[in-house]
Amino acid sequence: MKVLLADDHIVVREGLKHIIESQHGEVTFGDARDGTEALNRIWNEDWDLVLLDIHMPGRDGIEVLREAKKAKPRTPVLIISGSSHEEYAVRALRDGAAGYIEKNAPESEFLQAVSEALAGRCYVTPAVAQKLAREVASPKDKPVHETLSDREYQVMKMLASGKTVKEVAAELSLSVKTVSTYRTRILEKLNLTSNVDIARFAIKAGLVG
Description:
Blueprint: E1 2-6, H1 10-24, E2 28-32, H2 35-44, E3 49-53, H3 61-71, E4 77-81, H4 86-94, E5 99-102, H5 107-118, H6 126-137, H7 150-160, H8 165-172, H9 176-190, H10 195-204
Helix pairs in contact: 2-3, 4-6, 7-9, 7-10, 8-9
């Protein structure tokens, strides 16, 4: 079995290797430290499973997921994240992810997610299943933040947490001009005027703690 681990933290990658080997025995692993490297390895190699961090330098996980599913639609991609917000999970599932699991999930839950993905099924937590059910029941009542693109949503969350445009740009390996453009689009779509407004909106919507 070949598994690609795409995460910018070596400690996370090594930990995932240990957990997967504990159940699946001999496994050939590949590493990717950012979105560009992950996509290159997905395009040029065949994998039985890809574990993809949703937040990486450069191209983020959702962007990589979309490109990966275009190039290798049958390769299961399991999204891993440090965020517990179901919104990220729903976005990932819409784009073809085989599941979404938090990095701090119990080992047994993580192994279940891996097994489901390898079997061609989708791993969904109860919280995510409830959100999906609500969306199906009320498709016309989607919150306004769902009009944001995946990158806009990511930038909005970072600005809402108190980061400056310059800090967001550095963390995402983007130019300040590009992040400023995302910020302008966010303000327009949400009908807001400042970063303070963004923070208030995100807190009220339960998108940040």
